Amino acid sequence: MPIGSPSSLVRPAGSGRTGASTVTHRGRRRDTRRGRAERLAPYVLVAPAVLIIVVLRLWPLVLGVNFSFTGDGELNGTPVGLGNYLELAGDPLFRTSLRNVGLLVLLLPVAVAIPGLLATFIYLRVPGHRVYRSVYFFPAVLSPVIVGAIFNLMLGFDGPLNAVLGAVGVGPVDWLGDPGIAMFTVVGVHVWATFGMALVVFLAGFSTLDASLLDAARVDGASLRQIIWHVIIPSLTRTIQFVFVTTMIGMLTSMFGLLFIMTSGGPEGSTYLPEYYIWHEQGQMNRPALASAASTVLFVVMLVVGLLQITLLRRAGRQD
Fold it and tell me: Which stretches of sequence are listed as region Disordered (predicted)?
């Protein structure tokens, strides 16, 4: 048939519609695959982190809790029920460590307020803010061993601090040998050594603060105390919650180095914390099952304290 004949230009009925439907069907399948891939992408990206947490965190936690219900020594691996937990309840050193946890909770607002105020001074550029900005992070880069050794020299009975107190007519204080004040001394050193990280978090929170609120407060004649209480604190509620929880976790799990160097749990066991107790039972007494029970109790304490803190701070934020 000649190429230019009318018959060659005639297409079978419905051929155009079939081609269009085929293209549409392929497009729908492509969109379906793209949509499925987009839905799966977050899970694929999160999967490695979740796997690491499960393998390195949750699974050891489960094993530790299970191990805490077994015995030590001759009863190694033998189920003993709540025997280890009952022994912890009757151990004066462990009870002292839990009382010290209560002391840490009471001192926690001070540990959070110090970096919070310093961050506020830096943000508001009060006199001396350049000094704070220059040196605030220096203690955080020091090893706890170095910090403990330095303060052992400074706070010794014949150390420079007592020499200064003696010069002004105040008797020497046994900072690390008096059971009534030794724990306060170690906590104070820990706050000094670690407040730099919390201060960095506060400075990051200030970057989200609406500067117009501060300008309005200044125009209204608000004092520094009123600006902090009525503007800054309500605006940084989430940051404060985060710092409270992380600071509490750090105080419960990161003071071993200072305790070991400065007091070794003394005097008279007054500076024991659950973390130090766990090390003592595991490393010194070779009682891993009892140490696992103490670790489980510490985990529960941190969980309860953290949830209570978040609940109270959220309620306070809603009231403001």
Answer: 1-34
Q: Tens digit of pLDDT for each residue in 283-306? A: 889 999 999 999 999 999 988 888
Whole-prediction pTM: 0.79
Token pair recorded at residue 173: 């204080």
Of the chain, the percentage scoring pLDDT greater than 70 comes to 89
Two tokens, residue 189: 């050193």
Residue 291 burial by CB count (10 A; 0-12/13-18/19+): exposed, middle or buried? Answer: buried
Candidates 215, 206, 18, 210; CA nearest to 121 is 206
Distance CA 291, CA 67 (A): 10
pLDDT of residue 238 exceeding 70, the answer is yes
Q: CA torsion, points 272, 274, 276, 280, in degrees to nearest 10?
A: 100
Q: Which domains does the chain have, with CATH numbers?
A: 92-319 (1.10.3720.10)
Q: Which residues of 187-206 are buried (b: 16+ CB within 10 A; e: fewer)?
A: bbbbbebbbbbbbebbbebb
Peptide bond into 234 cis (omega under 30): no
